[in-house]
Amino acid sequence: MKKREEFLPFALPFLGIEEEKEIVDCLRSGWITMGPKTKKFEQQFSRYIENRNAIAVNSCTAALHIALSALGISRGDEVIVPTLTFCSTANVVVHLGARPVLVDIGEDYNVTPEAIEKAISKNTKAIIIVHYGGQACNIKKIYEIASAHKLPIIEDAAHAVGAQYLGNKIGSAAIQHIGNVSTVITCFSFYATKNMTTGEGGMIVTDNDDLASRMRLLVLHGMSKDAWKRYASAGSWYYEVVLPGYKYNMTDLQAALGIHQLKKLEWFIEKRQYFAKLYDEAFCNLDEIDIPVRHNDRTHTYHLYAIRLKLDKLKIDRCQFIEELRELNIGVSVHFIPIHLHPFYMRNFGYRRGDFPVAENIYDRIISLPLYPKMKEDDIKYVIDAIYYLVEKHKK
């Protein structure tokens, strides 16, 4: 196979002149931290997601931390977390002194309702679900379990902005009221590799007004309402700290990107879905590859396109397969190393390999392929050709 000359990155943001002009306007205004553009972005996101409370923060990690803190999670509490996720989903539980109770996943990479229900104990105070790769979990069944046990749900939707379940967007008020769950908080990410970006950044969404008010306080040091306005003409030097909050606010520089990224999001998603369709069509009949599972009652936004190697049909392992893709100038990755296999969680919580067999089996075989709107169709075809070349080279 002829090697391409330039390296194909795993992910790149798609930024245009609109974002550039908004950033310049922000710089010229003299207001670069949290201010009017952040508020505008929150309002636009609230309308897009169809939920009345949207709170901009500096990362999805911050959003998860704020959500748990607002719910009063503390030492001695347990929070259920799927093991196949990025470390921040579990780390924020540890930060509050609570115990992350890890659970296994299904073949679609998402946590299963059965695993959640089995893990609930008298110390369980919340459930975190992760919409892996851009496709929703089985929300209806999970929410029914949460409702029966009177537990709040935190959705780690870092991958899933714009994704739909039963015809409604993840994070919408319509979704959050499925199954009569007492409390639902949805957390989004706008990191540079995500479906839309503010460089770093995130958003918290909830239909619970009281909880939203508490989270707004926690985002900026626990300072009294509209503390960010204290340096504006309408502001006041006087403020009160009513909660021991954090420094998690988004800046206007970040929001300047978000305002225009949000306008392009549906096109970004369409492009990702089209490229995923090309991958699906190419790999669906390749015996050595499993393609991502799709569910008909939800849309997939394809933040990730993660294939699984059938190692019993290949003479090499996943690590060597990745190295040979890199030698062909293709950037790929692995999402994720299961939480229970990281040294901190093994050492401090007693987790071991063998605890979660589905996640481990998937982890050993999974490879995330490049897929993003800035790619060209020829890039997708090159990746496809490379996969076929390596499979043919190494099949048993």
Q: By CATH's scheme, which homologous superfamily of the largest domain applies?
A: Type I PLP-dependent aspartate aminotransferase-like (Major domain)
Number of helices: 13
Contiguous low-pLDDT stretches (5 residues minimum) are: none
Under the CATH scheme, the architecture of the largest domain is 3-Layer(aba) Sandwich
Percent helix: 25-40%
Strand percentage, roughly? 5-15%
CATH topology of the largest domain: Aspartate Aminotransferase, domain 2
Count of distinct structural domains: 2
Number-wise, the strands total 12
For the record, the CATH class of the largest domain is: Alpha Beta
Largest sheet: 7 strands, mixed
The arrangement of helices and strands along the chain is HHEHEHEHEHEEEHEEHHEEHHHEH
Average pLDDT score: 96
Indicate the overall shape.
globular
Instruction: Calculate Rg over CA atoms.
Output: 22 Å
Task: Offer a quick outline of the entry.
This protein has 396 residues and is an alpha/beta fold. Helix content is 39%, strand content 13%.
List the helices and strands and how they pair.
Layout: H1 17-29, H2 36-49, E1 53-57, H3 60-70, E2 78-82, H4 87-95, E3 99-103, H5 113-119, E4 124-130, H6 139-148, E5 153-157, E6 164-165, E7 168-169, H7 173-176, E8 184-189, E9 202-206, H8 209-219, H9 252-283, E10 289-290, E11 305-309, H10 318-327, H11 343-349, H12 357-365, E12 366-369, H13 377-394
Parallel strand pairs: 2-3, 2-4, 4-5, 5-8
Antiparallel strand pairs: 1-9, 6-7, 8-9, 10-11, 11-12
Helix pairs in contact: 1-9, 2-9, 3-4, 3-8, 9-13
